[in-house]
Structure formats: C-alpha cells, structure tokens
C-alpha cells in the first residue's frame, strides 16, 4: 500500500515538474514597433559655398540612421552637414532603422555642375589688356589661371585676377581653378576673344532651319544635331540648292552676338559650307549682315573654326545663311554655336 501511494506521489510530482517547465518555456510576446519612415530635405548652407549642404532628417519611428554621400563618406548623425570636395553627380542615400531591425531608405541625386558653380568675366582696360576675374558669389581661397598653349594648359599665375592680351579678331582658351576655404575644388574653361570672355548662348534661343533633313528634325542627321553640343553628330540636308539657313530666336531678350563657330561634318569635303554670312534682325523683315565669309575651307573632318566679329547691336533673330558649299548636292555641318562677349 505504501509503495503504491509513493508511486502515485512520484508520478504527480513528475507531471507537475514537466508542466512547470513547459510554462517556463512559453515565449513572451513582444509588441511590434512602428515601422520607420525615411524622409529628408537638404539645402545649401551658404550662398558663397556651393559645396556644403545641410541635410534635415524628417524620418519617423527610427532608432538609428546611416547616411551615404556618394563620395565614399558616411555618417550616423541624425541631421548632418556635409561638404563635397569635387564637382560631379552624387547619390545621397539615407537608411533609417527601428529597434526591431525594420528599415526604410530614401535616395536623391545632387549635381554639382562646374559651369553652374563657377564662372569668370572680363574687363577691357585702357592699356589694351583684358582683366579676368571670378564672378560672385563663390568664395575662393586660391585662384589659379591657365592658358591653353598647343595641347597643354600652362599656369599663367595664381591670383584673384589676371591680365592677358588677345590679338584682335582672335581668341585664346583660359581655364580657372579654385579651391574654397573648406578644400573644395572646381574648374571651368572659357574662350576669350579680343573683346572679352565668349559665353555660349546657343541654347537660350528657339532654333529653326529653312528646310530639314528628309527624315525630320529629330532623325539621326536632322537639324537638331546642328546644336546638340556634340561634334560627332551632324546635320545633313539633301538636294541642297543654296537655300539653307539656320535661325535662332531670342524672343523678348535680344542679344549682342560677337562670335560663332562651325564644325565640319565627318563625310565628303564637297559637302562643307564655303560661302556664308550671319545676319541679325528684330522684325524678320529688315536684316543686317554682321559677319560674312567667302572661300572658307575645313581641311580636316570634325574641325571647329571660330569667327569673331564686331557688333554692338542687340538682335532678337540671328540667321546663318549658306548659299554656297564645295559643290555637292548635299550639305553637312556638325555643329553651330554662337557666343556673346562678356
């Protein structure tokens, strides 16, 4: 009898112990946290420093954050300030995480275009020299000026401004390189004529031609190739009869052009323009010839020639007329650009 009672008690004890162990192993349910969001905005910190940006974190329900700036630098600051060292395009990525490992991310691109950041202007002095100087508002700690001689950029001087001489009716290529107080760098290259810096304003106008390529303006050799900033493409007109003109309309902003360039196409030299002129007008009725060329020759394919002329009158319309080529029944031009002198 005693043995039986002992057996019953032992069995009950074991069952109780097992029950307690199972209860102990039951997982505790953790409530799920709010999933994080990823949002931010950014702005340039100072008008004279185009390289430094403040990134404001607008994310919610996060415990940690990581930023990547596309230039091999990262940070875990909530709302960082970052300075880029070079111009270029940067992909900014922010990843936010909560305490349970859930994450969200946002990406944006920032483009630091050297031509948008940096420019320089010119002033003609009584001594016949041209003074080149940076345009505001960018702040530079060092400024270095280079001149293209042959195929090599040669240092002229390191100074806020530089004085140069350009022979009448010609142009030279100058580059300015700057370093900001925070170590950021930028450089731009400009053509400088005898009357000042040549700024390309081809893209500021409405473009048209007298007659297009048979396949239309947007075709592989259509008229839009004439102003696409790519000298490897070209505009080709079939059945050329000396009636080709290309026109730029500056609408409510008449401009004073001082130069233009033409680049030869990649095919037969007989298709190159030979005689041409540039005219200006404000009403499409009365036209003034501002530059005229005869017996022009493009010795090589893809050759760019610059034509500088005296002009002080602002015109709404400019028209390039090409009545004569080198004898072919087709005419080709790779690129046409126009410039103001500043």
Brief summary:
This protein has 342 residues and is mostly beta strands.
What's the helix and strand layout?
Elements: H1 2-25, E1 40-46, E2 49-57, E3 64-68, E4 74-75, E5 81-83, E6 88-97, E7 103-112, H2 114-117, E8 120-124, E9 130-134, E10 142-149, E11 152-158, E12 161-164, E13 171-179, E14 185-193, E15 196-200, E16 206-209, E17 235-237, E18 244-249, E19 257-263, E20 273-281, E21 288-293, E22 304-308, E23 317-325, E24 331-333, E25 335-341
Antiparallel strand pairs: 1-2, 2-5, 3-4, 3-6, 6-7, 8-9, 9-12, 10-11, 10-13, 13-14, 14-15, 15-25, 16-18, 17-24, 18-23, 19-22, 19-25, 20-21, 20-23
Structural account:
- With 342 residues, the chain is mainly beta.
- The protein folds into three domains: 40-112, Immunoglobulins (Immunoglobulin-like, Sandwich); 115-198, Immunoglobulin-like; 202-341, Galactose-binding domain-like (Jelly Rolls, Sandwich), CATH 2.60.120.260.
- Helices cover 8% and strands 46% of the residues.
- It has helices at residues 2-25, 114-117; strands at 40-46, 49-57, 64-68, 74-75, 81-83, 88-97, 103-112, 120-124, 130-134, 142-149, 152-158, 161-164, 171-179, 185-193, 196-200, 206-209, 235-237, 244-249, 257-263, 273-281, 288-293, 304-308, 317-325, 331-333, 335-341.
- The strands form six sheets. The protein has an eight-stranded antiparallel sheet with strand order 11-10-13-14-15-25-19-22.
- Strand 10 and strand 11 form a beta hairpin.
- The longest helix is centred in the first third of the chain and has 24 residues, at 2-25.
- 25% of the residues are buried.
């Amino acid at each position: 009898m005693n043995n039986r009672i002992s057996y019953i008690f032992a069995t009950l004890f074991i069952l109780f112990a097992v029950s307690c162990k199972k209860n102990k192993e039951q997982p505790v349910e953790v409530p799920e946290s709010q999933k994080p969001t990823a949002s931010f905005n950014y702005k340039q910190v100072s008008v004279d420093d185009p390289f430094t940006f403040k990134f404001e974190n607008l994310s919610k329900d996060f415990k940690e954050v990581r930023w990547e700036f596309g230039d091999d630098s990262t940070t875990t600051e909530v709302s960082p300030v970052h300075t880029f060292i070079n111009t270029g395009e940067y992909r900014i990525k922010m990843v936010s995480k909560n305490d349970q490992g859930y994450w969200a991310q946002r990406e944006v691109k920032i483009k630091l275009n050297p031509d948008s950041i940096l420019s320089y202007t010119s002033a003609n002095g009584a001594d016949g020299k041209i003074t080149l100087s940076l345009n505001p508002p960018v702040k530079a700690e060092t400024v270095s000026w280079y001149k293209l001689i042959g195929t090599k950029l040669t240092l002229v001087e390191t100074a806020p401004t530089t004085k140069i001489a350009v022979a009448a009716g010609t142009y030279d290529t100058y580059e300015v390189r700057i370093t900001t107080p925070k170590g950021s760098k930028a450089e731009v290259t400009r053509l400088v004529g005898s009357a000042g810096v040549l700024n390309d304003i081809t893209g500021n106008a409405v473009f048209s031609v007298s007659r297009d390529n048979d396949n239309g303006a947007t075709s592989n050799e259509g008229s839009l190739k004439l102003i696409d900033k790519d000298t490897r493409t070209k505009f080709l007109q079939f059945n050329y009869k000396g009636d080709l003109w290309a026109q730029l309309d500056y609408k409510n902003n008449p401009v004073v052009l001082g130069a233009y360039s033409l680049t030869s196409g990649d095919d037969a030299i007989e298709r190159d323009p030979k005689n041409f002129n540039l005219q200006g007008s404000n009403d499409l009725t009365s036209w003034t010839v501002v530059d005229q060329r005869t017996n022009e020759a493009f010795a090589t394919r893809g050759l760019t020639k610059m034509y500088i002329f005296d002009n002080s009158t602002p015109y709404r319309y400019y028209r390039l007329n090409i009545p004569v080529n080198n004898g072919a029944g087709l005419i080709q031009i790779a690129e046409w650009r126009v410039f103001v002198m500043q």
